[in-house]
Amino acid sequence: MAECSKTAYIESGTSLYIKEKGRKSSVGFVVDVPPVEQFVRLRVGDLLIISRDSSDEQDTSPSSANGTHKITCPSGYLFDSVKPGEPISFDDGKIWGVIKGTSISEIVVTITYAGLKGTKLGSEKSINIPESDIRYEGLTSKDLRDLDFVAAHADMVGISFVRDVRDIVVLRQELAKRKCSKLGIVLKIETKGGFEKLPLLVLEAMKSPNPLGVMIARGDLAVECGWEKLADIQEEIISICSAAHVPVILATQVLESLVKTGVPSRAEITDAANGRRASCVMLNKGKHVVKAVSTLDTILNSQYTRAKAELKPLMLSSPVN
């Protein structure tokens, strides 16, 4: 073990020496230094430039200078969909901004909401554009490669950010090509469009012989639809799926404090109890996930009668063509 009396910057491969009596003796090299997360700290009024990541050789590290920050994003759909004046959020709604300008290769954002001392935006964080018309159709080439693996090794496949019946039609065709009639399909409801078209999405998916389920992905759904509407949206999704006899997965931050710290909050206990109306409750990973599983089992199987869903009429949000 080595100890430094002053700040030192090292990386994997750095040589270490012992210096004594005017001599330096090599003792080895530094190995397996964990990478340091790169981030920018955004404040209200800052400019954020999102650059299209068009080359694997491009430096994708976030950078900052005089209140202007730059990050890269590999998604071409983002650049094709946004317009000036539309809102954009980052990292599950921790940071909000407004699109100031766009071009083929860049999007300029003015930050309108962040923490008082600024909020860190690291790599691989979510980006939501709730009011933009996302120009996206079907499965990408990567999706198809992933589907080959899923079809061979998994029990079910999830459709993230499903918005339109066409997404399900394409998936059904691809599964038929692979002769996967028993592979489960999970519709992940994460957007306003997906929620509004849920009855049509469910009806289309039920045409397939594949088992079907619906996930209430509350993280993106809250950002896309508004935090204050999430409870009503959750109830509506459960009611629609109950009427259609489709299993529901309740996901995102269930018993989150318990999973991470070992101690639950009072509010999340009652939130977890609402999972009785769902068919499945999903927990995130964490140090205390085993304890969380045990607690969740106790909550869901309490002595009180399991709540029955109030079955509402299955209304179509738009006319069938």
TrEMBL record:
Enzyme Commission code: 2.7.1.40
Catalytic reaction equation(s): pyruvate + ATP = phosphoenolpyruvate + ADP + H(+)
Record-level Gene Ontology MF annotations: ATP binding; kinase activity; magnesium ion binding; potassium ion binding; pyruvate kinase activity
EC supergroup of this enzyme: transferase
Xref: SUPFAM superfamilies: Phosphoenolpyruvate/pyruvate domain, PK beta-barrel domain-like
Pfam assignment, any one: PK
Pathway as given in its UniProt record: Carbohydrate degradation; glycolysis; pyruvate from D-glyceraldehyde 3-phosphate: step 5/5
Entry keyword set: ATP-binding, Glycolysis, Kinase, Magnesium, Metal-binding, Nucleotide-binding, Pyruvate, Transferase
Cofactor: K(+)
InterPro entries (alphabetical): Pyr_Knase, Pyrv/PenolPyrv_kinase-like_dom, Pyrv_kinase-like_dom_sf, Pyrv_Knase-like_insert_dom_sf, Pyrv_Knase_brl, Pyrv_Knase_insert_dom_sf
Tree of life domain: Eukaryota
Record domain Pyruvate kinase barrel: where: 40-284
Family to which this protein belongs: Belongs to the pyruvate kinase family.
PANTHER family hit by this protein: PYRUVATE KINASE
Protein name: Pyruvate kinase
Lineage start: Eukaryota, Viridiplantae, Streptophyta, Embryophyta, Tracheophyta
